[in-house]
Design a protein that fits this description.
Elements lengths: L6 H5 L8 H11 L3 H6 L4 H19 L7 E5 L5 E4 L12 H9 L6 H5 L13
Antiparallel strand pairs: 1-2
Length: 128
């Protein structure tokens, strides 16, 4: 049976400025793994964790123009920024969420959505 997640669940303990409607689209993308997850009898709690990790991974990759979540920012004279939880790159291990997903998804159901040749990239459209 397909497990669903919500944008509210994605944002619990996770900071993002992405709109709920865009998060819902990412959730719909991740739901593409449902047939594989169901056929491999992956437990519901594990499916939920994997879907949350996948959506948070994609959100992390798109935040701050691909630099990850902002941790600190200095000002007026000596400008500087630092980013948290960011390993860099664009592959599945580029964020801690992707690395966690890669470990949990032993059947490759969700990971395959994020690592195929087309390498989907999601960006926020409009004003922040």
């Amino acid at each position: 049976m397909a497990v669903t997640i919500t944008s509210t669940e994605v944002k619990e303990g996770f900071t993002t400025t992405t709109s709920d409607s865009e998060i819902d689209m990412l959730i719909a993308f991740v739901d593409g793994a449902d047939t594989c997850l169901d056929s491999n009898s992956v437990p519901d709690n594990t499916v939920k964790l994997m879907k949350l990790a996948a959506v948070r991974h994609m959100l992390t990759l798109q935040s701050n123009d691909g630099n990850g979540p902002l941790q600190s920012q200095n000002a007026p004279s000596g400008a500087g920024r630092s980013f948290q939880n960011w390993q860099g790159g664009t592959d599945i291990n580029a964020s801690r969420y992707g690395a966690m997903l890669n470990q949990m998804d032993t059947n490759g159901c969700v990971v395959s959505l994020l690592t195929n040749d087309s390498k989907p990239q999601f960006y926020t459209l409009g004003r922040l």
